[in-house]
Amino acid sequence: MAARAKRVKPESKVKPESKSGPEQRPPFSEAVFRATRAIPRGQVRSYAQVALYAGRPGAARGVGHELTGLPPARQRDVPWWRVIRSDGTLAPMVAHEQAKRLRAEGVEVRQRGEVFRVKVDEDGRG
Prior knowledge:
Blueprint: H1 27-37, E1 45-46, H2 47-53, H3 60-68, E2 83-84, H4 95-104, E3 109-112, E4 115-118
Parallel strand pairs: 1-2
Antiparallel strand pairs: 3-4
Helix pairs in contact: 2-3
């Protein structure tokens, strides 16, 4: 019985090893980080709003994914805590830290049990 030959991917389709740094990040990641950095201190935006400002309407979950995977070196650069759910609640995994940072910026955050909620104005800002 003859051995089967292994398929080799053409070089053009092989992805280069990922390197850290903004020049190596996908355009959506950088657009999310840029849109998040543009949120003024003391204000919040929803994941959906950030997706819209990043040029990808409807990609709210993608925004959450990018901010969750934010490299530790960029966590001070990108104010991830200013991005909240559209109903004003904070994501449970980071709610305590997020509430602390938002309150330090003067944003009103209410807590009922383990649920944290930002009082959002009519224009969607905290």
